[in-house]
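Pair request: fold both.
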Amino acid sequence: MAGSTCIQGWTGPTRRRPQPLSLTSRSDAADLVVQGKGKFEELMVCSHEIAASTAQLVAASKVKADKDSANLSKLQQASRGVNQATAGVVASTKSGKSQIEEKDSMDFSSMTLTQIKRQEMDSQVRVLELENQLQKERQKLGELRKKHYELAGVAEGWEEDGKRPVGTRLGAAGSPQLGVRWMPV
């Protein structure tokens, strides 16, 4: 599958308001998995992104709203529902994946000693290749996250090096407030 069908709800921890969420991205990922064209892991990532975006929305709302606000209580209750639903999707996805993998397990009973040894060696090579690929992908993910937060900071008025101008802080309306020192990101 080319590219992710999951969209982010927020561009970073400093955003004041979320970008629109799309539950259709998760259903698109689910449709592709059912058709055999998608990946189970992508569906799980989409579910986690939705839950994370919802949690960020609640956290931002707690800062802005009165703690006794009825709307905040409704939002928190809805957030719990989203978390339960996404947890259910992830659990179902893992279960479905394991059931499919069980069907694909190999039968070694008809193989000779030489064939089994060859399969073992091929499997060891594949494990080493995958471990190397995993290490590279983790490094790439770290760099992507770093760049994402840098860009989100610049969009919020931070300097290019990831620091806010010394003595300034963005207020509720996005205007600088003087006299507050910020640490680098």
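--- second member of the pair ---
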Amino acid sequence: MVNLYDILNIPEDANVIAIQRAIRLARDRQDIEERYLKLAENYLLDDKRRAQYNKQMGIKMHARRNGLSVGSDKRYLAGGIMLVAVLVIPWIIVMMLQGKATEQIYQQKDGEYKAAQEAMEKAWGVAPASGETKPQAVQRTLDDITEKQSQQLEQTQ
């Protein structure tokens, strides 16, 4: 008996959709005789006949549900592990580097972040006695810092 799976160039555990697609492509290309295509339609698309055909051919099939293998498939497990590795490991590295960068900013004595943080704390401590609100005091302090930095930049040039 002829191996219809080899003729259609599909795996033995192919689902019905893959078999239909292979038959349709073979008809479009006209590279397989029509009698083999009819045999494939009759035997491979009907579950009972396919089971008999596979038994005659000595093909052992795993139990299938909705086109997916019921048992564990190592290819899917490996793919899942690779997906986790590709997505999670870079994220962990980025988080670690970000933590180190934050530590370096905090450790700098003359760091801009530390100066800005101190200025913010100072601004929030300003009483609105001068008629301004706390957000206005914060904005004024930030403007002062920006002006001081631009003056320092001009002096260095």
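Observation on the second member. The chain has three domains: 4-68, 72-107, 114-157.
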